[in-house]
Amino acid sequence: MISFIGKYYHNLDQKGRVMMPAPLREVLANKYSSGKLYLTNAPFDRALHLYPLEEWLKLEEKMRQLPKSDEAVMFFLRRVIASAVPCELDKQGRILIPYEQRQDAGISSEVVIVGQIDRIEMWDKETWNNITDPSKVDIKRIQNALTTYGL
Q1: Which residues make Cβ contacts (< 8 Å) with residue 21, sequence separation at least 6?
Q2: Cβ atoms of 77 and 63 closer than 8 Å
Q3: For a surface tag, which of 6, 14, 106, 142 has the fewest beta carbons within 10 Å of its beta carbon?
Q4: What is the pTM of this model?
Q5: pLDDT digits (tens, 9 = 90+) for 7-57
Q6: Domains of the chain and CATH, by start
Q7: Distance, C-alpha 144 to centroid of its chain
Q8: Degrees, nearest 5: CA angle 51-112-91
Q9: How many CB atoms lie within 10 A of CB 40?
Q10: pLDDT (0 to 100) of residue 1
Q11: How far apart are CA 68 and CA 10, in angstroms?
Q12: How far apart are the first and last CA of the chain?
């Protein structure tokens, strides 16, 4: 596996740690040599994004090229960059999700961990179920948009 893919269900322990699924740990070990990660708020969802250092540096470089006075850029800097914390997997393959980030994402106990090619997302199970429920989205609009991308 070269990219982060798949959906996994885990529980937070009492200290706010969650086990990173083995297939995602394998990608981290084989593709990203630093072992360093950045955990941050998702820009528009009640979720968290986990970036390997190498992907985080690409994101930072993109942000450096953008006008800091642009309202969208300011929002992204304040929501995503400002909430970022460096982290690493512990010896048991767990990651600590700081209390503030758990609160921002609405994560209480059950966590859905989702591979998203170049990053990992973490969701509260109930929130995940709501946003991925086909009956709660405009299927025709989504289908049309994906068709324009050739998917």
Answers
A1: 6, 8, 10, 113
A2: yes
A3: 14
A4: 0.93
A5: 999 999 999 999 999 999 999 999 998 889 999 999 999 999 999 999 999
A6: 7-126 (3.40.1550.20)
A7: 26
A8: 60
A9: 21
A10: 58
A11: 38
A12: 21
